[in-house]
Amino acid sequence: MLTELTIRRAIFRYGLMLNFVFLSALSAFSQTEIGGVINQYTRVLDQPGCPNVIQVADAGSFTVGQRVLLIGMQGGQMVIEDDASFGAVSAEELTAGLYDWTHIEAIQGNEITLMDPISPGYDFSGIVQLVGVPTYADAVVTSELTPLPWDGALGGVLALEVSGTLELAADINASAMGFRGGQSVQAADDNCNLTTAFRRYFYEAGNWRGAPKGEGIIPLVPGREFGRGRQANGGGGSNSHNAGGGGGSNRTSGGNGGENREPSFFGCSGNFPGLAGFPLDYGPDRWFMGGGGGAGHRNNTSMSSGGNGGGIILIKAGELQFNTGAILSDGADGLQASGDGAGGGGSGGTIILEVDIVSGTPAVSARGGRGGNVNNQSNRCMGPGGGGSGGSVYSTSTLIEADLAGGEPGLSTGSSECPEGPNGGQSGEPGILEMAGIKMPSTAFGLEFTGLTADTVICPGDSLDLMVGISPTNLEVSYQWWVNQGGDWIELVEGNGISGTSSPNLSIDQLSVSKDFQLEINTDCTEPQRSDVIRVEVSDGPTAGFAYDLDGLTVNFINSSFGATAYQWTIEELPDYSSTEPEPEFTFPSYGSYQVQLVARSECGQDSTVQLIVFGGGPVAAFEAESSGSKCVPVTVQWIDQSEGVYDTYQWSFPGGNPSTSSEPNPVVVYEVPGEFDVTLTVSGELGTSTQTREKAVKVFSLPQPAFSYQIDGLSVSFSSTANASLTHIWSFDDGSSSNEKDPIHTFPGPGAYDVTLNLQNGGCANSVTQTVLVFTTKVEDHALRPYLQLSPNPTSGPLRLDSNHPELFPLDLYLFDARGQLLRTYELDRPRMLDLGEYPSGAYFLLGRSALGSGSWRIIKH
Questions:
Q1: For residue 799, is pLDDT > 70?
Q2: What is the DSSP letter of 226?
Q3: Hey, what domains does the chain have and what are their CATH numbers?
Q4: Residues 6+ away with beta carbon under 8 Å from 833
Q5: Which runs of E-coded beta strand occur in 500-622?
Q6: pLDDT higher than threshold 60 for residue 629
Q7: Within 13 Å of residue 602, how many CA atoms lie on the same side as its CB?
Q8: Contact (CB, 8 A) for 671 and 627
Q9: Strand, coil or helix: what is 17?
Q10: H or E element: which one contains 16?
């Protein structure tokens, strides 16, 4: 809907565009020569209503359609405590530096309507000024172009706009036209002596203990005008006695003033010079003039004022052409003093160059002022001033270079008691060059809805209260509530339980059906605006519902309930789980099926829903065995379930085993009889049943019982196994030889006793037996031990005495054989002893001995 306000603004903007086109067309034929002061200035007193309307002190020099710059020069809060934080400023409390680049739409008396709404945050109780900005097609600076010098309320800002080329044949100069330096005051009745020390950060104006502070973005505080504490970005004035003032600051810091280093023990020192101004590094969205330097302390007639800061220069041009001119916004030097403290240097100002093309050799400067020098008497060492900081330059062209050096401190000279130097005075820091241009005006011309009641749900018959907040709050606003009836929006009227239809707060006693509402607002400054739709659902109660996403065992629940204000999640199989989050995430402990319940509640009641969530598919039976390693009865086997899917019951079948059935997951079964046995596992669950049978899964064998006899024929021995020939026979003859025959004949390599082993194997089941066999010939030839062992009597009726006097004979192993070579007995001796052969029948016997000394054999006759 086109309103009168919309049409009027559109026509005005179109007129500005035509004017710009007309000026551009003339640029080919004319070039305006400019110099001196080209801007108009007036103080802005208030913003009476609409966000684009301001009240000024004098609108007489301004015209409709004129380009203007609205800028906050001073305003905000600074620390005023008597400590080192005096003069510090925070961005949250700062109103100075704000600006708006716009046009004048209308003028009525001293009330000016701007094309765009101004930025929020201006403090009109501080210093805000409106600067008239001339616009040109092409222009050439033929004589020095300056702003009106800052006088504490107006000036300090130079701004111009050129659609074509701006040529510099002379300087554009705002040097020393910014915040003013502290103006030197001669202290009266100076009662300084060697016992006094003046440490305070402020004194009232006229107090001999301090000197005036430099000017900054915060106005001087009554009763705190003097002293070493900084004045926001203005440098502090020196404290007594005869120390130097502090340098002013812009985005970076100036330097502290120098001390009065009194040579005489009984003289007055000045150990508390002025401090540098507070740096205002708040970026390109705030523009500041350079801070003034603080005054040096003086009690004589020498002037010791601080230097002024540089002003603000704003140039918007299609092309900036450097010829013989430069762009300057330097801080002024502190004044030189004789026999007193000197003033601090002013800070460089701020230069904004929004240009498309740069030609020629750029000459741009925003240097800090030098601290004032002191010309001492030969026996004195007064304090010089601190240097001012470099200024700020913002440019949209990378071709711009600038001299942003900080000012050096002044020097204490002419003394025979101390060397020439700054006496602790400091240089100002260099300034900052940054790529930036002019902040565009706000396009949000109107009111803002705040605190809008959200979409809501009520129960049938409940009362309804809807609220909407409006920002800004200083405008006269008319209100009208609307309701949607069958697709048509109609105005609500008072009555029948409805009130507040023309206010920000709507009340309805009872609402029985769901409705959509909107609030319309209107002012003399803005077009009608409507809030977002507020949906009010009348619900008999909530409806519970949910979906879910699976990621392994992790579930993300998606709540699709309607009309609920609270939720309760539970899982039947996990009684310890509960959640009141609208959409919880939960990791389940294992595969299986779970009953998940969601209860949705509201003031109108509750509803619940249950879903079965299944992890995994139907069961697939599978198992493996872990046996004891033996295949001989009894065999112990643990059966391990390796089934997959969702199941919760087991049924095992073990024919031939003990137990023969089981419902355990991993049962242990013992097989006590030989045979081959099947195993079956059946697993069951909500998703089905699966069975696996493994035939002959278990093979159990009987334990073999090996035994054998033998016949000796010299070195040849015939062996005979008593076992069945179907079993595997493995013979070991103790001489490195073996045989797999059932009844082998083996020839030993020589006489002796041999441990012959028969191993019988029945499948994987094995058992063995070992006998010692004495192999000899009719002539026993092994006599190695005979010299060391004597046997008597031989023949014997039974007792057989063994004697030896050799210490290494023992231990001694003896083997007693009959005449057929059958081993009858073994002896393990550790000393000589008596053997008893009385139990054996009469006949011939052989005794074989083995020790570390070798072996030997004896033929024994028993009567």
A1: yes
A2: B
A3: 31-39+135-443 (no CATH), 448-538 (2.60.40.10), 546-615 (2.60.40.10), 623-700 (2.60.40.10), 708-775 (2.60.40.10), 790-862 (2.60.40.1930)
A4: 802
A5: 505-508, 515-522, 529-530, 534-538, 546-551, 554-559, 566-571, 574-579, 585-587, 592-602, 605-615
A6: no
A7: 20
A8: no
A9: helix
A10: helix 4-26
Sign of CA dihedral 568, 569, 570, 576: negative
Q: Phi/psi of residue 36, each to 5°?
A: 75, -145
User: How far out from the chain centre does Cα 113 lie?
Assistant: 47
- Name which of 825, 820, 856 is nearest 840 in CA terms: 825
Task: Name 172's bridge partners.
Answer: 145, 327
CA gap 24, 30 in Å, rounded? 10
pLDDT at 474 over 70: no
Give the containing element (helix H, strand E) for 692: strand 688-700
Q: Between vectors from CA 655 to CA 650 and to CA 656, what angle results, nearest 5°? A: 130
Say which residues have a Cβ less than 8 Å from residue 17's Cβ, sequence separation at least 6.
none
Per-residue pLDDT, averaged over 49-61, amounts to 93
Is 88 or 448 the better-scoring residue by pLDDT?
Answer: 88
Instruction: Sort strands 172-173 and 327-328 into parallel, antiparallel or unpaired.
Output: parallel
Q: What is the pLDDT of residue 196?
A: 67
Q: What length is written for the chain?
A: 863
Binning pLDDT at 50, 70 and 90, where does residue 94 land? very high
Asked if 640 and 668 count as a contact pair (C-beta separation under 8 A), the reply is no
For residue range 203-239, list pLDDT tens digits in order: 999 999 999 999 999 999 999 999 999 999 999 999 9
Query: What is the per-residue pLDDT for 161?
Result: 99
d(CA 275, CA 216): 13
Whole-number pLDDT of residue 13? 52
**Torsion angles phi and psi, residue 210, rounded to 5:** -140, 170
How high is the pLDDT of residue 26?
44
Residues 191-202, mean pLDDT to the nearest whole number: 78
| CA–CA distance, 424 with 747 (Å, rounded to integer) | 118
pLDDT of residue 446: 61
| 658 phi and psi angles, rounded to 5 deg | -135, 110
What pLDDT is recorded for position 780?
45
Residue 792, strand partner residues = 801
pTM above 0.70, yes or no: no
Residue labelled with tokens 């601190």: 386
